[in-house]
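Weekly sync, protein design subgroup
Attendees: M.S., D.O., the rotation student, P.L. (late)

Item 1: inverse folding check
M.S. brought a backbone from last month's batch and wanted to see whether the design step gives back something sensible before we order anything. D.O. pointed out we never logged the input encoding, so this time it goes straight into the notes. Structure tokens as presented (309 positions):
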């Protein structure tokens, strides 16, 4: 105990610096975990307050979890959620790393900053605005795409009634919005690489491609591994704005745009069951936790230094 107190006193400056962040996590990330109890109850509002509502609600066991699997939509929403996120992770990683390497290799610093800012800007746009941007491109009557198709002598396409085209549209929109932001992490990691390694490689006759494949990519591997592990943890979470605002909640597209989050939201609009939405959130968190543990175990078996923990 004396050693413990002595360590606290010795590191009090560092602990004070960590304290605001630790309190933030405790209040907003750990305390709300107690609310997962609602997923096992039939939540009903009580005039005595929120906590009384939880305590007085009836226990229903796993009935709320059956909400996700009791209909034929369960397979579709699970498939869409996992496959879209897999595409976002793989393509997003490749493009973000490629963008970071291209920006570093640009000799004109002003041009590099201009490209970096231009790629970063879409991240700050809300999905509502992005949804209207996409609509201005894909509108049947006045959309830029259909105008271009007409100019090329082709027939117009009613994009908002063609489900088969939306996997490509959603992936493209997500990459356009997020790749610039993701590339900043890899750009910072590349800037931290010792430049003497590149100079030694150039003396040995290595070209740009060999420098990238033999120096940049291997030294980026730990950052890539950690970022991928964090993304895998959210593979059961879908960006609600992307899948709800961009397709404009078109019922004809549900087979390709319906994911767990939008399915639960539409279910809540009809049934208003808080217990069911909490069960869906707990299901997503639990599966995400298992995937992180599994992915980290696989990475740890391959290379211990690249593992998250």
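Designed sequence read out in the meeting:
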């Amino acid at each position: 105990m004396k050693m413990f107190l002595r360590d606290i006193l010795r590191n009090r400056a560092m602990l004070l610096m960590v304290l605001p962040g630790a309190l933030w996590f405790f209040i907003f990330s750990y305390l709300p975990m107690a609310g997962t109890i609602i997923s096992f109850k039939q939540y009903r509002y009580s005039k005595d307050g929120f906590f009384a509502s939880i305590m007085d609600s009836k226990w229903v066991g796993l009935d709320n979890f059956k909400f996700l699997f009791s209909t034929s939509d369960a397979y579709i929403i699970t498939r869409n959620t996992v496959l879209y996120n897999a595409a976002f992770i793989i393509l997003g990683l490749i493009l973000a790393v490629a963008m970071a390497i291209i920006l570093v290799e640009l000799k004109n610093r002003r041009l590099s900053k201009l490209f970096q800012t231009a790629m970063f800007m879409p991240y700050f746009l809300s999905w509502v605005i992005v949804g209207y941007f996409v609509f201005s491109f894909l509108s049947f009557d006045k959309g830029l795409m259909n105008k271009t198709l007409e100019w090329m002598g082709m027939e117009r396409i009613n994009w908002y009634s063609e489900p088969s085209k939306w996997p490509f549209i959603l992936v493209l929109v997500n990459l356009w919005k997020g790749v610039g932001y993701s590339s900043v992490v890899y750009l910072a990691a590349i800037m931290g690489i010792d430049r003497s390694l590149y100079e030694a490689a150039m003396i040995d006759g290595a070209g740009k491609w060999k420098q990238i494949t033999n120096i940049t990519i291997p030294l980026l591997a730990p950052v890539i591994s950690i970022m991928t592990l964090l993304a895998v943890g959210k593979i059961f979470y879908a960006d609600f704005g992307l899948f709800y605002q961009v397709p404009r909640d078109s019922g004809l597209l549900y087979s390709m745009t319906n994911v767990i989050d939008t399915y639960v939201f539409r279910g809540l609009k009809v049934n208003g069951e808080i217990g069911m939405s909490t069960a869906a959130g707990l299901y997503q968190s639990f599966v995400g936790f298992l995937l992180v543990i599994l992915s980290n175990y696989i990475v740890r078996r391959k290379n211990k230094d690249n593992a998250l923990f």
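Discussion: The first helix runs from residue 2 to 10. Strands lie at 41-42, 58-59.
Action: P.L. to compare against the previous round before Friday.
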